[in-house]
């Protein structure tokens, strides 16, 4: 799917009618992610926490004054332990077996700048992608891995400070990955199937200016 997304982005570059109006660049970001799609499951295995630090990056392209495209990925990893829960809302019993969760959402996103001529530019966007999910656990010295990739949808909004060779931004993003692999078995108890959620991140932008 990531290859398909890359082909779509390349096709958009080649098909754009005014090549001189395009502007390429890249961005790096870091922030906080909350796994709201499986919040109770995450809290159970992560000792009361449902999120943590994320970082990522993207290549981006400005298409005229208002529209843009980006292709990027974000990385989230957190360590906890396997637990036993009999019923939703029931007591959580730690089992002492180390557990590590990793998610990497890849996304092709289109954006629209609401005030393109302002120095502080608000924007909204939406996109599609693939979310890679990996669950690693160790029981009795034996490590087992369970991984999958699911189609995902993304929606976002933020502001960027324009001007100069380097820009800065703040972005709120939500994504959903329906029917993702459950978190260490407890997601079946809570009836949660989605490892998506909300994130708030700060960005440093190099190039990719709109014209």
In DSSP terms (H or I, runs of 4 or more residues), the helix count works out at: 3
**Uncertain parts:** 12-21
The percent of residues in helical segments reads: 10-25%
* Overall CATH class: Mainly Beta
Cα distance spanning the termini: 30 Å
Count of all domains: 1
Average pLDDT metric: 86
Sketch the topology as an H/E string, one letter per element.
HEHEEEEEEHE
- Name the structural class: mainly beta
Using the 3D structure, state the CATH architecture.
Beta Barrel
Quick one: how many beta strands?
8
CATH overall fold name: Porin
Strand order of the largest sheet: 1-2-3-4-5-6-7-8
Give the biggest sheet: 8 strands, antiparallel, barrel
**Range of strand content:** over 45%
Helix and strand topology:
Layout (H helix, E strand, L loop, with lengths): L1 H14 L6 E13 L4 H7 L5 E13 L3 E19 L6 E22 L6 E20 L2 E20 L4 E11 L10 H4 L6 E11 L4
Antiparallel strand pairs: 1-2, 1-8, 2-3, 3-4, 4-5, 5-6, 6-7, 7-8
């Amino acid at each position: 799917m990531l290859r398909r997304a890359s082909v779509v982005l390349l096709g958009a570059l080649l098909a754009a009618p005014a090549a001189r109006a395009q502007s390429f660049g890249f961005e790096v970001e870091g922030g906080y992610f909350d796994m709201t799609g499986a919040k109770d499951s995450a809290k159970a295995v992560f000792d009361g926490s449902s999120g943590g630090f994320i970082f990522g990056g993207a290549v981006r392209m400005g298409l005229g004054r208002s529209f843009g495209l980006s292709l990027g990925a974000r990385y989230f990893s957190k360590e906890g332990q396997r637990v036993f829960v009999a019923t939703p809302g029931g007591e959580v019993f730690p089992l002492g077996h180390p557990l590590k969760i990793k998610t990497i959402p890849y996304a092709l996103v289109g954006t629209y700048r609401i005030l393109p001529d302002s120095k502080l530019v608000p924007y909204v966007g939406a996109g599609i992608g693939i979310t890679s999910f990996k669950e690693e656990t160790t029981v009795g010295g034996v490590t087992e891995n369970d991984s999958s990739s699911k189609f995902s949808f993304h929606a976002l909004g933020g502001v960027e400070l324009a001007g100069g060779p380097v820009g800065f931004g703040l972005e709120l993003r939500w994504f959903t990955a329906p029917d993702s692999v459950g978190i260490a078995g407890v997601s079946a108890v809570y009836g949660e199937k989605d490892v998506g959620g909300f994130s708030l991140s700060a960005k440093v932008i190099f190039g990719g200016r709109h014209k």
